[in-house]
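Feature request, filed as a ticket because there's no other form

It would be nice if the structure record came with a short human-readable summary line next to the tokens. Right now we just get the raw output. Example of a typical job, pasted below so the devs can see what we mean:
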Amino acid sequence: MAEVKRLHFTFDDLPKLPHDILSDVLKSVEASEVAYALKGQPEEIKELFINSLPQRTQIILEDEMQLLEGPQPRRKVEAAQKVIVDKARELEKEGRFKLEDFMEADFIE
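Raw output as currently delivered:
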């Protein structure tokens, strides 16, 4: 079950990661990719991602987001989201964390 859930890890699951892990994932991706990935996301998700970055990178990201004002092609947004999800999976493969530890698990009482 955990293996199936891990394979279904999506961009929407990223906010479930602990702050330090999300920060590591985002720091290893270009700010322009993060800006595209955040296009159309709720404000609280944008704030979570921005606040997970060092201050200097936050400024760069906010500048990148301003450059993307207005509608953007869905394929570019989804491709950027995939880059971030792939980076999270890469860090997991390196043993930095286990995705299933942070995913909603099935519990039976």
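Something like this underneath would help us a lot:
The radius of gyration is 14 Å.
The chain has six helices and no strands.
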